[in-house]
Write a structure and sequence with these properties.
There is one protein chain. By secondary structure, the chain is α+β, with helices and mostly antiparallel strands. It has 9 helices and 9 strands. The chain has helices spanning 16-22, 27-33, 38-46, 69-73, 81-89, 98-107, 120-127, 156-162, 165-171, and strands spanning 6-12, 53-54, 60-61, 91-95, 113-119, 131-134, 154-155, 184-188, 198-204. A 4-stranded antiparallel beta sheet has the order 4-8-6-7. Strand 2 (53-54) and strand 3 (60-61) form a beta hairpin. The longest helix is centred in the middle third of the chain and has 10 residues, at 98-107. The chain is globular and about 45 Å long.
Length: 215
């Protein structure tokens, strides 16, 4: 099984200088970088963020409105909503499909964004042991949410060998077909050297959708 050669990350345009300087940091590391107290970090890391948060250093982190704790409680396997929030905040996420990126973009249409087009082959080669693939949009728990848990993040090596078998085994669900495409590529922790995998950047004005370059 092969992955597409390109993946995409949507970032707040105001965060672009920090990304250029520090790399692509997961939310947990952004909270540390901002110098917040342990109590405040814990609140932002393990509780639903109903609104976008602006950290003391000006970095913006996104809201989590599509993940109400009550909805998560009904679809999580052996995890609490607080653990799920922390698990997502400890990863960096990339989309495989521009269409899905544009759905996320629509949720922050009032603010300028930057789309990073990333060389997926090079990134996976460098971060292979930390790459996890997901068969669902892990950041959305609305409208009959899919069952999810730690096994939702399928290690890249496992996916190459047996597709989605480890997800089914870990969650007690029916195994997905091998042809089911991954929705997200995630990296556990941060990608401080993300700029060396960068193929292109596109700045999106408020309301502007992303159009991927051909090829």
């Amino acid at each position: 099984m092969n992955l597409p050669g390109r993946i995409y990350h949507l970032a707040e345009a105001s965060n672009w200088p920090v990304i250029q300087r520090e790399g692509l940091l997961c939310t947990s590391d952004l909270l540390l970088l901002a110098g917040l107290s342990e109590r405040e970090r814990d609140r932002l890391d393990r509780q639903q963020r109903l609104t976008q948060a602006v950290l003391p250093n000006g970095v913006r982190i996104r809201d989590q409105r599509p993940m109400p704790p009550a909805a998560l409680a009904g679809c999580l396997v052996r995890l609490s909503p607080q653990q799920w929030y922390a698990m997502l905040n400890a990863r960096v996420f990339f989309w495989f499909e521009p269409q899905r990126l544009n759905r996320q973009r629509a949720a922050c249409a009032a603010r300028p964004q930057v789309v990073m087009t990333i060389d997926a082959t090079a990134l996976v080669a460098a971060y292979r042991d930390r790459v996890g693939l997901t068969p669902i949009n892990t950041g959305n728990a609305r409208r009959r949410p899919a069952i999810r848990g730690a096994a939702t993040f399928v290690p890249y090596a496992d996916w190459l060998q047996s597709g989605w078998a480890s997800e089914a085994s870990g969650l007690g669900t029916r195994e997905r077909r091998p042809s089911h495409p991954p929705v997200e590529l995630t990296v556990s922790g941060s990608v401080p050297d993300v700029m060396r995998f960068l193929l292109a950047t596109d700045r999106l004005d408020p309301g502007q959708p992303f159009a991927a370059a051909p090829g």
